[in-house]
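FW: tagging you since you asked about this chain on Friday. Here's the raw sequence from the shared folder, copied in full. Didn't touch anything.
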Amino acid sequence: MDRYKQQKISSEIRIPLFKNEESDHDYACRFIDETTDFLKKYALQVGKKGFVCNLSGGVDSFVTSMLIKKAGLFLINLSLPFSDKKDMGDVLLAKEVVKPDVFKVYDITKTVDDCLELLKELPDSKVSIGNTKARVRMTILYRVAEVYDILVAGSINAAELTLGMVTKYGDSAADVHPIAGATKRIVYEMAKIFEAPSSIIDKVSTAGLWDNGSNQEDVTELNHQVCLYLRGKSISEEYENRVVKLYENSRHKRHLSVRKQDAWWKK
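HL: got it, structure written out here
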């Protein structure tokens, strides 16, 4: 394995190092304490009382919301379903545990369909619906944040950030990403600490925006391998090459709009 490349990627994603003999549970507890302290200090520094966060029914948005609540900050959770929201039950279960200060549901189906209809003459792609959904949701989150004078919290984890499994200016467009430095394994550990509903913890991870369920096994294994990689563990050459390629191809997603003075994109 290319250990230099591995260390460079982990450093850029900013994965906190494990302390000697630290278990996943202890690491997750430390991550919670450090993140809630950061959220409180950042909100105070920028003069905002809290955050708005999409509550999707998945583990990432649940943990993100719980971190905000544990920090003692004002929290608005939005549910932004598209068409038939099959896991709305998990959204409502998560809401009962999180107990946000405000909870609202906005069906984005018509808005997304209108956007796609507007550009119907363009060739379709497998990500067109997914990316449109993500950007419509972020538009709504920022509108709500504007009205309530609060910040937008994203729920991207370290694996998604590394692999580029995010929509640029969609779910990647947030004021704060509280779990961006946490691997999926640690996100699940935090979910257990926060007593997430079992249906959320047991839910199989997918690409989330446009997959049809056929890629669940592949995405689950890729998440596992990238978590090992980011922790400095050895993985197979096949997965190492795959992780590095996805990381390098998605570099532009981890930066703001490029300027001619920037050098990060040059190899």
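FW: Residues 3-254 form a domain with the Rossmann fold fold (CATH 3.40.50.620).
HL: agreed, and Confidence is low (pLDDT under 50) at residues 207-212.
FW: great, closing this out.
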